[in-house]
Amino acid sequence: MAMRDLIPWNKNRDIDVRRDNDIHPFLALHREMNRMFDDVFRSFDVASFGLGRGFASMQWPSVGVDETDKEIRVTAELPGLDEKDVDVQITDGVLSISGEKKLESEDRDRRLNERYYGRFERRLAVGDVEQDKATASFKNGVLSITLPKSERARQNVRRIAINGKS
C-alpha cells in the first residue's frame, strides 16, 4: 500500500505529492507557517515573560501553602510593603490577599524599572477552616497566615491504600 492511499482526501483524487522542492502547495504552506512561527517565538526573550520559573513570576505576590492535619499556613512575599498596605479576608473558604504597592518616585528620567507596583489580589481556595480563629502576621516583607481546620474538615480525611500490583 502506498503512503498516498492512507491520506483521506486522496481516495478519489489524484494529488501528486512530491518530495522537497515539488511539494504540494498546501503542505508547502503548512511547512512555511510552522517555520515562521518558530522564527518569531525564537526571537522572544523568554526570561522577560517570567517563563524561566514556570509562570510563577507572573502571579504576584508569590505565595506558599503548607498543610498539616490541623491547619493551613499561607505565606506571601510582599517586599517593600507594610502591613497597612495589605488587606486579608476569608469568605466561604476562599482566602483573599489584596493591596497596593505604590511607585516610590515619579522619576521620568529612569531608564529601566523592573520593579512591580500597582494593585494586586490573590485568591486561594482553602476549604473548610475556622475563620474566627485565623491569624496573620507581617515581618520583613513576608505575610504569614494561619488557618485552623474545622473539626468537620479534619474528620473528612480518608487515607487511600496504594497497592503495588495492578
Report what the structure shows:
The chain is of the alpha+beta class and 166 residues long. The chain has 2 domains: 3-42, no CATH class; 62-106 and 116-155, Immunoglobulin-like, CATH 2.60.40. It contains 2 helices and 7 strands, in the order αβββββββα. It has a 4-stranded antiparallel beta sheet, with no helix packed on it. 8% of the residues are buried. The model is unreliable at 13-19 and 46-58 (pLDDT under 50).
Keywords for this structure?
alpha+beta, three-stranded antiparallel β-sheet, 28% strand, four-stranded antiparallel β-sheet, 14% helix, 7 strands, 166 residues, Immunoglobulin-like
Report a brief summary of the structure:
This protein is an alpha+beta fold and 166 residues long. 14% of the residues lie in helices and 28% in strands. The longest helix is centred in the first third of the chain and has 18 residues, at 25-42.
Draw up the topology in text.
Layout (H helix, E strand, L loop, with lengths): L24 H18 L20 E5 L3 E7 L8 E6 L2 E8 L16 E8 L9 E5 L2 E7 L2 H5 L11
- Strand line-up in the sheet with most strands: 1-2-7-6
Helix count, DSSP H or I runs of 4 or more residues: 2
Rg over CA atoms: 27 Å
> Kindly state the mean pLDDT as a whole number?
76
CATH fold name of the largest domain: Immunoglobulin-like
Total domains: 2
The portion of residues assigned to helices is: 10-25%
Q: Determine the N-to-C terminus distance.
A: 40 Å
- Multimer state: single chain
Shape: flat
Largest sheet entry: 4 strands, antiparallel
Count the strands? 7
Q: Strand content of the residues, in percent?
A: 25-35%
